[in-house]
Amino acid sequence: MIIVLKPNVSEQQIEEFSRYFGEHSIRVNKWVGDQSTVLGLLGDTSAVDVDFIQQQEFVERVQRVSKPYKKGSREFHPTDTVVDLGHGCCIGGDNFSVIAGPCSVESEEQITLLARDVKQAGATFLRGGAFKPRTSPYAFQGMRAEGLELLRHARKETGLPIVTEIMSAAHLILFEDVDVIQVGARNMQNFELLKELGKLDKPILLKRGLSNTIEEWLMSAEYIMAGGNEKVILCERGIRTFETMTRNTLDLAAIPLLKELTHLPVVVDPSHATGKSSLVAPMCAAALAAGADGLIIEVHNDPPRAMCDGAQSLTPAQFTEVMEKLKALAPAFDKTLNIFK
Amino acid sequence: MIIVLKPNVSEQQIEEFSRYFGEHSIRVNKWVGDQSTVLGLLGDTSAVDVDFIQQQEFVERVQRVSKPYKKGSREFHPTDTVVDLGHGCCIGGDNFSVIAGPCSVESEEQITLLARDVKQAGATFLRGGAFKPRTSPYAFQGMRAEGLELLRHARKETGLPIVTEIMSAAHLILFEDVDVIQVGARNMQNFELLKELGKLDKPILLKRGLSNTIEEWLMSAEYIMAGGNEKVILCERGIRTFETMTRNTLDLAAIPLLKELTHLPVVVDPSHATGKSSLVAPMCAAALAAGADGLIIEVHNDPPRAMCDGAQSLTPAQFTEVMEKLKALAPAFDKTLNIFK
Amino acid sequence: MIIVLKPNVSEQQIEEFSRYFGEHSIRVNKWVGDQSTVLGLLGDTSAVDVDFIQQQEFVERVQRVSKPYKKGSREFHPTDTVVDLGHGCCIGGDNFSVIAGPCSVESEEQITLLARDVKQAGATFLRGGAFKPRTSPYAFQGMRAEGLELLRHARKETGLPIVTEIMSAAHLILFEDVDVIQVGARNMQNFELLKELGKLDKPILLKRGLSNTIEEWLMSAEYIMAGGNEKVILCERGIRTFETMTRNTLDLAAIPLLKELTHLPVVVDPSHATGKSSLVAPMCAAALAAGADGLIIEVHNDPPRAMCDGAQSLTPAQFTEVMEKLKALAPAFDKTLNIFK
Amino acid sequence: MIIVLKPNVSEQQIEEFSRYFGEHSIRVNKWVGDQSTVLGLLGDTSAVDVDFIQQQEFVERVQRVSKPYKKGSREFHPTDTVVDLGHGCCIGGDNFSVIAGPCSVESEEQITLLARDVKQAGATFLRGGAFKPRTSPYAFQGMRAEGLELLRHARKETGLPIVTEIMSAAHLILFEDVDVIQVGARNMQNFELLKELGKLDKPILLKRGLSNTIEEWLMSAEYIMAGGNEKVILCERGIRTFETMTRNTLDLAAIPLLKELTHLPVVVDPSHATGKSSLVAPMCAAALAAGADGLIIEVHNDPPRAMCDGAQSLTPAQFTEVMEKLKALAPAFDKTLNIFK
Question: Which chain B residue's Cα is nearest to C65?
Answer without folding.
Answer: B4
